[in-house]
């Protein structure tokens, strides 16, 4: 959860970590309880990552890219779709056939979103923003992930300033719930 470097390096490392968790899920047979544990870990990382992008990356996209509003709006739509899928997945056990459908849907949504960010958005941002601006964004994203929620909250605001005000409180509640239930631990 905090790797260092500019915002693009930070977020790309997050993408690789989530993909590694997806690979672990796919390597296990349907119904294996370990799949739920890996799914919970993936959701925790995806929610933190999304909150940080919504608070800092997408406002920067709006600022630095000529078509930034349209790009940021599309990214927020992708996040909302994935967050609804994560919320549906939250209450489903690994042995339930619905788990396989939902985790497959989530993996497809995230993989498509990651491909789009890495193939298009990040290159555009790198050419439009200075290295200093990208480093500052990396620091802000790392800070945001430390206090971000760990559970999906589909009805929560996803744009500043409301998301920046509400996320730390929701994050604290989520981390307390996770500690009490053992969610996200091996």
Structural class, from helix and strand content?
Answer: mainly alpha
End-to-end separation in angstroms reads 16 Å
Mean pLDDT: 89
How much helicity do the residues have?
Answer: over 70%
- The helix/strand series, from N terminus to C terminus, equals HHHHHH
What composes the largest sheet? none
Envelope shape: globular
Report the β-strand fraction as a percent range.
Answer: under 5%
In total, how many beta strands?
0
Number of helices: 6
Stretches where pLDDT falls below 50 for ≥5 residues? none
Radius of gyration: 16 Å
Region (Disordered): 138-172
InterPro entries: Hemerythrin-like (IPR012312)
Protein name: Hemerythrin
Pfam families: Hemerythrin
What does this structure look like?
Helices cover 78% and strands 0% of the residues. It is built from six helices and no strands. The mean pLDDT is 89. It is globular, with a radius of gyration of 16 Å. Helix 1 packs antiparallel against helix 2 (33-64), helix 1 (7-27) runs antiparallel to helix 4 and helix 2 runs parallel beside helix 4 (97-128). It starts with 6 loop residues before the first helix and ends in a 5-residue tail after the last helix. With 186 residues, the protein is mostly helical.
Q: Which key features would you list for this structure?
A:
Hemerythrin; mainly alpha; 186 residues; 78% helix; Hemerythrin-like
Describe what is shown at a glance.
It holds the Pfam family Hemerythrin. With 186 residues, the protein is an all-alpha fold.
List the helices and strands and how they pair.
Elements: H1 7-27, H2 33-64, H3 68-90, H4 97-128, H5 131-147, H6 162-181
Helix pairs in contact: 1-2, 1-4, 1-5, 2-3, 2-4, 2-5, 3-4
């Amino acid at each position: 959860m905090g790797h260092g470097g500019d915002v693009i390096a930070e977020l790309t490392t997050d993408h690789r970590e989530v993909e590694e968790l997806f690979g672990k899920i796919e390597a296990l047979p349907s119904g294996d309880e370990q799949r739920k544990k890996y799914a919970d870990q993936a959701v925790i990382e995806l929610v933190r990552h999304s909150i940080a992008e919504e608070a800092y990356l997408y406002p920067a996209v709006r600022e630095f890219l000529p078509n930034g509003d349209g790009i940021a709006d599309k990214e927020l739509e992708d996040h909302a779709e994935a967050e609804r899928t994560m919320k549906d997945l939250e209450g489903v056990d690994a042995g339930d056939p619905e788990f396989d459908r939902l985790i497959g849907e989530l993996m497809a949504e995230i993989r498509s979103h990651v491909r789009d960010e890495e193939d298009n958005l990040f290159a555009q941002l790198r050419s439009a923003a200075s290295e200093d601006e990208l480093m500052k964004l990396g620091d802000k994203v790392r800070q945001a992930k430390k206090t971000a929620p760990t559970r999906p909250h589909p009805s929560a605001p996803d744009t500043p300033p409301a998301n920046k005000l509400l996320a730390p409180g929701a994050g604290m509640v989520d981390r307390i719930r996770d500690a009490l239930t053992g969610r996200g631990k091996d």
